[in-house]
Amino acid sequence: MTDDVTVTASDDASLSAHWTAAIFVQLSPSNFRLDAPLLFSSVAPLRGYGLALLHSAPVGELQFDLQNVARVDSAGLALLVDWLASARALGRKLRYTQLPQPLLALAKLSEVDRLLQGFD
Predict the structure, then answer these.
(1) Which fold is adopted by the domain 6-116?
(2) CA dihedral sign of residues 111, 114, 115, 116
(3) H-helix segments, 2-110
């Protein structure tokens, strides 16, 4: 197992001052846990972090563990779909794991639940 690597909000000046917690925590070379809300106010900076991980990921499947996503709105859901499209454009596979219930409910309402669960 690799050492834990964190990308913190303080690494990017474009993030709001209230962002102090880690955003992505590396669990293995291809598995990262997202520790941030997926909200309109957070998607712009989060998008860049996610794209950086997609670009630097080893060939194969990359996983984003979403168990610690406590809050989500439609902008956050759109970001997850955007990351899937970006991964596909890069020739990589992105899979989301441990999707929280509020996210699944919003995805189902928006008819993208199967996409987020890997049933595209």
Answers:
(1) Transcription Regulator spoIIAA (3.30.750)
(2) positive
(3) 43-56, 74-89, 101-109
- Token pair belonging to 11: 């690494």
Query: Tens digit of pLDDT for each residue in 39-66?
Result: 999 999 999 999 999 998 777 889 999 9
Closest CA to 73 of 33, 46, 48: 46
Q: Is the pLDDT of residue 113 over 70?
A: yes
Distance in Å from the first CA to the final CA of the chain? 30
Strand partners of residue 25: 6, 33
CB 95 within 8 A of CB 118: yes
At 41, which amino acid appears? S
Per-residue pLDDT at 15: 40
Can you tell me which residue has the tokens 């690597």?
5
